[in-house]
Prior knowledge:
Chains A, B: This is NADH-dependent butanol dehydrogenase A. The structure is a homodimer. Chain A is an alpha/beta fold. Chain A contains 16 helices and 9 strands.
Amino acid sequence: MNNFNFHVTTDIRFGKDRLEELPEALAQFGKKVLLVYGGGSIKKNGLYDRVTTLLSEQGFDMWELAGVEPNPRVQTVKRGADLCKEHGIDVVLPIGGGSTIDCGKAVAAFALSGMDDPWELVLGRRGYTGPALPIVTILTLAATGSEMNVGAVISNPETKQKLGFGGPSMLPSVSFLDPTNTFSVNHYQTAAGSADILSHLMENYFSRVTGVDVQNRITEGLMRATIANMRIALKTPADYDARANLMWASTLALNGLTGVGKGGAWSCHPMEHELSAFYDITHGVGLAILTPCWMAHVLNEETVFQFATYAREVWGITETVPELAAKMGIQKLYDFFKECQIPMTLPEVGIKDERDFEAMAQQAIDHSSIATAAFVPLQKADVLAIYQACMTESQFV
Amino acid sequence: MNNFNFHVTTDIRFGKDRLEELPEALAQFGKKVLLVYGGGSIKKNGLYDRVTTLLSEQGFDMWELAGVEPNPRVQTVKRGADLCKEHGIDVVLPIGGGSTIDCGKAVAAFALSGMDDPWELVLGRRGYTGPALPIVTILTLAATGSEMNVGAVISNPETKQKLGFGGPSMLPSVSFLDPTNTFSVNHYQTAAGSADILSHLMENYFSRVTGVDVQNRITEGLMRATIANMRIALKTPADYDARANLMWASTLALNGLTGVGKGGAWSCHPMEHELSAFYDITHGVGLAILTPCWMAHVLNEETVFQFATYAREVWGITETVPELAAKMGIQKLYDFFKECQIPMTLPEVGIKDERDFEAMAQQAIDHSSIATAAFVPLQKADVLAIYQACMTESQFV
């Protein structure tokens, strides 16, 4: 086990009927609030009205950054930070899924960064040590875990870049996690969000660091809980416990718990970020498409034990020949995503040909340490091969 | 799943060779430090010298509360708080296991409580809302989880009471978790501490609240990691990864992660606290003795499914008849504790007869909500029966 720090101070308020606590949570920072939200689903489901009515009654002044994109853009961050500076905002309140929260976190940091260009902030990657406005979040989608970590992912359509960045000041101070706010998330987004959770768990799980039983057993448990409750939530969208388990799993998957003591670079996220950057596809779907093909590509004599362990512990595979067990585990994951009606090839999400693969593979290498620090280091040719394998349906056993 | 708060702000510094960070961790609170430690094992293994030399070099002023008992006493808390008041202590630094840390937390709270009698503080139980001096811990035993939670357990030999109490201000600000500090923990204390970890996991696991897959899968995983690494550490005391897994498991078992969203009262701890209060036995050993007998006592038609799940997920029992599977799981736990050379009857730890059982059973009821809120509510006759079952060796299948 590697040395690590674990210092995650977000105040989690989990459960239903807790919105009345919001004014107190915000007021500790001030009365001028920037609401951040996306395409208006919170207006349809009534959450917007409930929040703004409550805050108006309690004497808060509100400004709005609306229309945050599913892959939030650097121009939107600029727009939000301008509002903060112009109106002396005290606290940023993203209401939405990971994209909205990521955008709110970037706004909070850029507003106090002293930088002229928000893209400069993003290009600093994980090294932001400057201040940020306080952040209080209301989560409406179980997926990214952004509600309890220091990171954010921002896209720049002009340069076709989608990059993660962050720093300690960007950790949300308070996050409201009400599973009922995810009842209206549709089948496709529920599946995609859950695939994102599973991807975070698998990215942290497959590591070259040994002696990490605690982290591995926790991560396997979270994968099993996610799979089981994903099935229920897709059939019965208003099943409270299923939504609650998905929501809490999403938070724990990426708050440090499953990754501490391990280190190394992720594999599928850097490859997916290029798909989203070039084609603006749904992040979780991109991850679902890539992951089984990545697994098959990196399955070798050195990794087979870990994939066989994964197959046994997560999918209950009893096959004792490690290579076959490993392949059966990969097949199970692929079949499960198909069962959840996730499109499992790149053409199905609009990437009809390979014209951008060279450029995307090069950027995946350039924008991450995938070539040196990943579970199995991936060179450009490896990334290309994985993209190509995702062009058609797969059979792994 | 029940509503819950999760707000655990302790700054965990996990790993070896990190003591050089201690001055910075303390200095944020001031330069006057109260060292709290137990029977002197930190003097034998060199930790005391390393800490005091380092802090002297950095200009800290130190006072000492030494000789904290394995079941720390209220008089010791008073002695420590008097030192804090007399010398204007800025920060309390317990170096030791759960007893030492619990004592340090109680000292930190009582010093600022404004109360005259430390037992008054303890009798307030979980309701302490007053201030406490900042607490920085150096953990030397994987067991209680006190390094990352708000609770403390203090004994009063005069009244034969051992009670848990706590409040938010008693959460350690920084905790140093260096697995090498546990290399010198002997076989008996390693086994007892690990049994305490397992007990915390089982107390949280067996609950009447449903729809908590995330918590249950995490808890099963922590139990498996604890069992596997307990075996290694008992054979090879200086195995770094085994000690690291036990240490991190001990912290996560009782920092809220495994208990949030569930509620209800614990079962074995209230019964064990009376054993310790009357006979001053080792807490973890008392728990190991009680737990299998408690399980057998509460196994019934309503609980059999949960015990069978526990048997399958933790011990790999493949038996499909639920009642038999459940009993096999209980037997596995009992046999495992015996394999670890934990004395598994009360007479082996000096409780030779039943003369105090009536009084202890009554106190277990009076000092907890075991009779109303436990997984299976236990009345005085139940507690008596469990104590009596612990007088001889058991066979569960």
